[in-house]
Each structure stands twice: as C-alpha cells, then as structure tokens.
Prior knowledge:
- Helix content is 40%, strand content 13%.
- It has 2 domains: 15-102 and 109-239, 3-Layer(aba) Sandwich (Aspartate Aminotransferase, domain 2), CATH 3.40.640; 244-365, Alpha-Beta Complex (Aspartate Aminotransferase, domain 1).
- The strands form 3 sheets. A 7-stranded mixed sheet has the order 1-9-8-5-4-2-3, with helices on both faces.
- The protein has 367 residues and is an alpha/beta fold.
- It starts with 14 loop residues before the first helix and ends with a helix.
- The protein contains 11 helices and 12 strands.
Amino acid sequence: MNELMIPAAKPLIGDEERAAVDRVLRSGMIAQGPEVAAFEREFSAALAGSRECVAVNSGTSGQHLGMLALGLGAGDEVIVPSFTFAATANAVAVTGATPVFVDVDPDTFTLDPAAVEAAITERTVGIQPVHLYGHPADLAAIGAIAARHGLWVAEDAAQAHGATWDGRQVGTFGAFGMFSLYPTKNMTSGEGGMVACESASIARQVRLLRNQGMEVQYANEIAGFNNRMTDIHAAIGRVQLTRLAGWTRTRQANAAYLDAHLTGVRTPYVAPQATHVYHQYTVRIEGATAVERDAFATALREEHHVGCGVYYPTPVHRLPSYGLELDLPVTDTLAREVLSLPVHPSLSEADLERIVTAVNTLAGAGA
C-alpha cells in the first residue's frame, strides 16, 4: 500500500469559513466593507497590541504602502536581509529607494545587528527586519541601533503571527509591522495582508494609498492604488483568527517533538527572549552543498513521501532582479544548507513519526 504524501504545508479551511463567505455573498456587500473593518479591529486586539490595523490585498502591498506612508523614495536606503523572500527587498525597490543587503545571524536566521550597524550610511533612513520562519529578529538590538541613528524600523512579520520578543508581540516595535495572510501562512484570508501602524497618521496614509488616495468617494487627496481587501477575504480571516492560538500551540508541540527526536540535522534555535510560532520548521544539513541538500529533499519526497521545501535557495541579492555580488557568508551558507520540514497543525502522531524516521534515516546514510 502506497503511503500518502505528507504535505509540506496545508491550509485549514472548514465549514465556518465557508459559512462566513456565504454570509457575505448573501449580504450583497462583497468589496471592502463592514467585514474588513471588523477584521481590522479584531486583528489589532489579538495580534497587534491594539495598534490601528489596515487590511490590504496582500502582504507585499502592505509592506509597499507602509514604506510609501513613511515617505520612502529615490535616494533613500533601507537595510534588509538577503536571506528572505524577494518581496522584502521589492517593497523598498519599487518606491525608488535602494535595499541594502546585509548578513543574518546563523542561529536565528534574522538580521545580524552588527551587520546592520556597519551598513548605515548618510542615505540610510530605515531598517527592515524579517521575523523569518516565525522567529523574531532581535528587536531590542535593532531598535537601539535605529534610535541612535534616527532611523525607522519596518517589521516584516509576514511569517510571524503571534510571535513575541521579550513578551511583546512582533509588529508592535516599528513604525509599522506587516503580516501576510497568504494561504500557507499560519492563518489566512485566502489572500491578503495587514499593516499594524504605530500612529494614526501612518494608518491614515496607508488607508489613502490602498483606496486610490481617497477616504471620501471622488475626493482623491493623493495618487493611490487599488490595494483593498474584500469582505469575502476578511470574513475568512475573521474565522481563522479565532483558531490561530490553538493552531500555534499545535505547531509548537509538533516542533518540540521534532526537536526531541531528530538526529543528524541541526534543529531550529529559539532565543531566550523569543516565542517562535513555527511558520516553518527549518533544519540545517550542516556542511552540505546545495546539490547535496537538494538530493536530501528529493529523497524525502520520493522515497519517504514527506513533503519539504527550501526557503530560500538563492539569496535575494543574487537574483536577476538585483544581480549583486556581496560577501554575505552566513546567508550563502544557509541558502545551501536549510530545509523546511512539515510542522503544520494537520500532522498526526504517525506523520511526525514518519518525518523523524525519514530524516534520521537519510541523515544517517549521508544522503
């Protein structure tokens, strides 16, 4: 009997989400409306320290509009990690500003504060830490650097719903924090993003930018975009938000099981100040080449039917869209060695046992 593939990620959509969508469809109010407003309030209370939140049509849109709301533009520089998804840097670049790529910490995979400090120039206006895989960046150190140099911080919390640093929720440290609501994230609205804003003025600017530059119909104050979230998506998000805490506990329990039983790979580090929410459970195959790591991943899928993913095989600065040659040794090492294993809440005890057996077998064989 063939084993079913254990998926690397699995969005959880149930009857409550379907009922919520049907409710919106019956109402006739399908575009941005009361569901979006309610979702913004509920998200703020649950995940953003009561900051004013603005819902948009994707996490990337949220990061882009947040940057524009801070006045980012041509001639400015923003310090970003290269070990991340391209959207982190793209949100800077599409404003006309320049993303300045720096290295990351080898344990947390997030911005190395010393590398940030060394990269500051007279053109630097901000720092964009990424809470990668669900582990927070060192927000205390980054915040101190920003304060010393008069810079803003914009948090990319796309993968970190509910994560904390020193007991404080991510997304509440910077001028704004962006959360993605893409289907594979820890919670989803089908597609969408949320911007948690430090001030009412930033929130108002993001609201203007998402809606063609207007708060009052046909009274366009600035040139803006159509980056609104629909009530359909917000209705899904509202249901998912009620389930997030339970799903997060399950992710953490699954991660603890993997921590305790995996051998031959380096399991995720958790800083003492951090709460990790395990958007991804990312191990390192230390000393591996990219070819060897990819062969390990192929064997997991094909021989053991365990889904997995490599996030991210090419550092952003090396992508054709940027084409830079930089000396970022930790980033280059991680891009060769990392492999993300299933950790999502749908895993059964048998799934976890199979993941452990598969990884330990391959690691022991030197695959």
